[in-house]
Structures are given as structure tokens and as C-alpha cells.
Amino acid sequence: METCGSSYLLKLCFSLALFCMPFVTFATDKHTHQDFFQCLSLNSANATSISKVIYTPINSTYTSALDLSIQNLRFRTPSVPKPLVIVTPVDVSEAQAVVYCTRKSGMQLLVRSGGHDYEGQSYISSAPFVVLDLVNLRNITVDVEGATAWVESGATLGELYYRIGEKSKTLGFPAGVCITIGVGGHFSGGGYGSLMRKYGLAADNVIDAQIIDMNGKLLNRKSMGEDLFWAIRGGGGGTFGVVISWKIKLVVVPEKVTILAAVRRQNVTSLVHKWQYVAAQVFPKELYMSLILQSTVGADGKPTMLAIFNTLYLGGVDELLNITGSSFPELGLTREECLETSWVNSTLNFYGITGQPLETLLNRTANTRAYFKNKSDYVKEPMSETVLEEVWKWIQKEDPGVAVMQWEPYGGSMSEISESAIPFPHRAGNVFKIHYMTTWTNGSAEESNRHLSWIRSFYGFMAAHVSKSPRLAYMNYRDLDIGRNKDHGRTSYRQASVWGTKYFNRNFDRLVKVKTAVDPDNFFRNEQSIPPFSSW
Ligand code: FDA
After folding, report:
1. Is pLDDT above 60 for 40?
2. Which residues 6+ apart lie within 8 Å of 215 measured at CB?
3. What are the boundaries of the signal sequence (predicted)?
4. HSE (side-chain half, CA atoms, 13 Å) at 532
5. Using CA atoms, how far apart are residues 216 and 58, in angstroms rounded to an integer?
6. In the predicted model, what is the mean pLDDT of residues 123-129?
């Protein structure tokens, strides 16, 4: 990538950057940038080295550096506010300098790891801002004997799974299904996947971390203290500091696991109805069977429903067939639908990539990007068949295959871990989580409005059938419709608690206390960060 290179170029780049700044999306103060760049060159161990990883709008590679990990095309349009500077440090001291200098210059700092935030909160702000992109900080060290690993935030889940699988056939890690997600944002908001019923969330399995605080100081678990260590494991990214790396506890997996994606087009309502009673409450922890629900066109040309039972079993196919045969015979699962494979291989298959080498896990751009809007809900009581039929009608209001509902079974370890163990509060009492998704490929305003309007109306309809007072949502499925900070994060506790309690329930108050102690000036903020009491 073309960046600012030698020390001569460094000076030239910095001067050109200052000269060009007024032409970017928002007006900026020349001195702010001068201060920032001078500060960076003074506070970096090697000014030439950091100059190579600075991108400003005058670099021809600025746009590709910005777009590199943007997942939601809704936020890749020219009208979306852009950062004044992007820095992709190659070592921790450079990241510390970026934090220190951004704060000193009075700009806002957004940290980005994998760029998968549903609302672009790692690279969009209406205030003049710097993006600290951790793409180059992605070392992973696996200690097989100790069954632990250190993983830097800029690594993707695919990279993590690959490095674990490279060292051991019987160790794994419970995190998300999408292999291109960044560890930094994912662990910060919880992070669930197909091992959740057996081992909980990614954040449940973090045992140490390194974080850069608002002063640019690097802290570990001992020096940050237990309150902050509690908060960063699920309290949401972009609020408490820049988490540089995480020490994780690896979990035991059998050498062979069984996976399948059973597609059913008949009796969908009764199958889904039954699933609600077995997937969380009857199946053993070793069995994770999630549901993908979408509309399709039937043989008669009319819209009809399709259900995919996406399954991972920590054991062999015979045991799996015994379990489903006795507790869910209606599914009619057959041996031919199942595949026995290694856990690491299952991560690729589970993501829907088959017949590709395992190295695909290392591809940071392995997924297809689109325009999308997603939402989430928690279900405490199974829905009746009559309600399910109503739900199908809503899905069928969207174009066939465009709207998808993903149902994630809870129970197992998710019910055993206390609601306050980490900030993620959705534990016992939840039968499943709903993930609503609508995706489109034409970015016109008309098309966007049509899909946004559909998902908002559908969400409105679902209110009667999901958690209430508060209606809960998953932090990592960020949804600005449920509330946002006003005036660049200077929101009152009362305003923020509207969405804060939806994500964190009773843990919201403790998060505000931690925030007040570690970042009273609200330097680390986004539209849904936790406010300190002082920002009322
Ligand atoms: P990104 O870099 O955009 O960061 C997200 C937020 O965290 C931002 O506020 C950012 O500032 C902050 N942040 C990032 N790095 C940080 C750091 N090092 N320190 C502090 N704050 C930091 N979830 C899930 O649980 N299971 C799943 O299977 C999936 N699947 C999935 C598929 C796809 C296609 C998408 C787009 C998303 C998911 N998710 C998911 C949701 C995902 O977990 C969520 O978007 C994460 O926040 C993404 O983390 P990234 O680092 O990629 O995002």
C-alpha cells in the first residue's frame, strides 16, 4: 500500500495532509492535525516506521485502507463521514502513541479490529476523528500444554481457529461462526457460536487481557483491576479503552465432531414448534442445533417457508442419531445428511464454505459484502403454531430468500453462567435468541428504505412474542434504532439507559460506574458507548 514513507516523505505527507484537510467531509482545525502529527512523530520510537502506516485522504491508498474491512455497504457511500486519519500500527507502542496523541489533539478516536460492526461504529463519527485500525496486530500464540492462547485483537476468528487447529486436534474455542470477524470487537461484546451451549461465549473464556487506557498506558488484568477486566468482557467495544490482546482458555473438543445442515420444506411449522421445546431444554450441551428460516418459492409458484437445522454435535454420528431419534424423531435426520470431521474443519463448513482448503480460514475477505440491516430479540416462552404462521407471513412480505431469521438455542452452559459473571446478561430463562436479517445489493435510497421499513415493522409485530420490560437485545448485533448517544456521546445516564438496559439489563449500572472510574471525560465513545456519570 502506498503510504507516507521516508522521513522526507513523512514531512511532505504531514504538510500535504494539513493542506488538504479542509476538503474532506467536515471542516477541521489545521492546528489540531499539526499537533496530532507532531505528537506522533515525537512519541513514536521510530517516526519513519509509523509514517508508513498513516493514511490521510491525500494518499491514493486511503480509500482501500478504509474500505478494507467495511462489511455493511450502507456505510461505504461518499456521504458517510470519513476519518481524517487512519493508522494501522505494527506494534503496541505505536498504538499507544495514537491513543495518547489523538486525545491530546482533541479529536475522537475509533478503534477497529475486524470492521464487522452492524452500524459501522468502528469507522463512522460526525466529529473529526482518527481510526486506529488493528489489522496489523494479529499475532496468535497457542500454548497446547496449558490449553491457553494469547490472541491480538486484529486477528480474525478464522485465523484463531486455524492456529488452534494447527497445534491440536482436541482443543477449540467457543466464538462466532463468521470467520472474518475481528477478535477485538467480537470478544468485547460477548461472541457466541456453535460451542456456546457447551462452553458459553468467547468472553466467558477470557482469562487475561492487555488494554491501552485513555492516557496511552498499557495495562494487564492485574494492573487494570477486576472491575475493568469484568467490563471489557462483554460491555461493548469502543467504551473502555483499546484492548490489544486477550489471553483465552482453550476448550476440549473430540477428535471427530458431527456437522449437518438439514433442509426441510415440509411441515416447517410443526418442526419449528417442536424445536422450541427440545433444542435448549432437552438436547445435551454437546448438541447445538440452530435454525435458519427463510421464504422460498414452492412448486406451485407460491411463497413457502424453508427451515435449515444447522447442527454441531461434539461426538460421533451414531450418538447424534440416537439423540435426535429419541427426542426429535419428527426431523427424520438421516446418516447421509451428517458429516464427521475435525472441529477446525467444522468451523469452515459451518460458515457455509465446503470443498475449500483449511487455509481459507486465513482469508480476511472470505465473505460476501452487502447492504444489510439486522436486529435481535430474546425469547422466553415458545411461540404457538398460530403465531409461527403469522411470523411466516411477515417473512414472506420480503422478496424470497432476502429476509432470514436465525434462531440460536440457549440452555446448557448458557443457563448455568450467572447473569452478572460478565456484562452479557442473557442467561437462564432464555429459550432462544432471534437474529433478524435483511440483505440487499442495490444501494439506492428507495431500495434501502423498503428493506429498513420492512425489518422495523416486523420487529414491531414481534414485540408481543419476545422478552419485555426491557425488551432485550444482543450487544454485538448493534442496532441504533433502539437508542443512541446524542451530541458525540455526551448523553445522560437516563438517555443511555434506554438502550443500555436492553443490551446489559441490570449490569448497565455497574458498567457506568466502571466507565466513570476509567474514562470520566468520555474519550472512548461511539453512538452506543457507556457514558460516564460526568457526561450528563
Ligand atoms: P469492529 O472492528 O467493527 O468493532 C466493533 C466495535 O468494537 C466498535 O465499536 C469498535 O470500536 C469496537 N472495537 C473493535 N476493536 C476493539 C478493541 N480492540 N478494543 C476495544 N474496542 C474495540 N457475532 C456473534 O457473536 N456470533 C456470530 O456468529 C456473528 N456473526 C457475524 C457475521 C457477520 C457477517 C457480521 C457482520 C457480524 C457477525 N457477528 C457475530 C457480530 C460481531 O460479533 C460484531 O459485529 C463484532 O463487534 C465485530 O467485531 P469486529 O472487531 O469485527 O468489529
Report:
1. yes
2. 99, 100, 103
3. 1-27
4. 16
5. 27
6. 94
Closest among 525, 433, 533, 432 to 484, alpha carbons compared: 525
Query: 335 pLDDT exceeds 80?
Result: yes
Residue from 313, 477, 493, 503 carrying the catalytic annotation: 477
- What is the full DSSP assignment across 360-412? GGG-TT-SPPBEEEEEEEEESSPPPHHHHHHHHHHHTTSPTTTEEEEEEE--T
Q: Say yes or no: CB of residue 242 within 6 Å of ligand 1.
A: yes
User: What is the Cα–Cα distance from 383 to 370, expressed in whole angstroms?
Assistant: 31
How would residue 1 be classed by pLDDT, with cut points 50, 70 and 90?
Answer: very low
pLDDT band at 536 (very low <50, low <70, confident <90, very high): very low
- Ligand 1, atom nearest to 134 Cα: 18
Output the nine-digit C-alpha cell for 187: 470478544
pLDDT of residue 498: 92
Q: What spacing in Å lies between the alpha carbon of 136 and ligand 1's midpoint?
A: 17
Say if ligand 1 is within 6 A of residue 238 CB. yes
Whether the predicted pLDDT of 26 surpasses 70? no
Ligand 1 centroid – CA 328 distance (Å): 34
CB of residue 186 inside a 6 A radius of ligand 1 = yes
Q: Whose CA is nearest to atom 5 of ligand 1?
A: 185
The pLDDT, as a whole number, for residue 14 is 39
pLDDT above 50 for 391: yes
SS (H, E, C) 16-65: HHHHHHHHCCCCCCHHHHHHHHHHHHHHCCCHHHHHCCEECCCCCCHHHH
In contact, 431 and 276? CB cutoff 8 Å: yes
Tell me if residue 125 falls in helix, strand or coil: coil
What is the whole-number distance in angstroms between the Cα of residue 114 and the centre of ligand 1?
Answer: 6
Provide the pLDDT for residue 22. Answer: 32
Of 392, 250, 281, 263, residue with least CA distance to 332: 263
Q: Are 522 and 490 in contact (CB under 8 A)?
A: yes
Q: Cβ(409) to ligand 1 under 6 A?
A: no
Pocket flag, ligand 1, residue 117 (CB < 6 Å): yes
Report the SS3 class of residue 257: strand
Q: Which residues contact 284 (CB under 8 A, 6 or more apart)?
A: 323, 412
- What's the whole-number mean pLDDT along residues 151-164? 98
Query: In this model, does residue 9 exceed pLDDT 90?
Result: no
CA Rg, the chain, in Å? 23
Respond yes or no: is residue 100 known to be catalytic: no
Can you give the pLDDT at residue 31?
Answer: 63
If you ran DSSP here, which 8-state letter would residue 85 be given? E
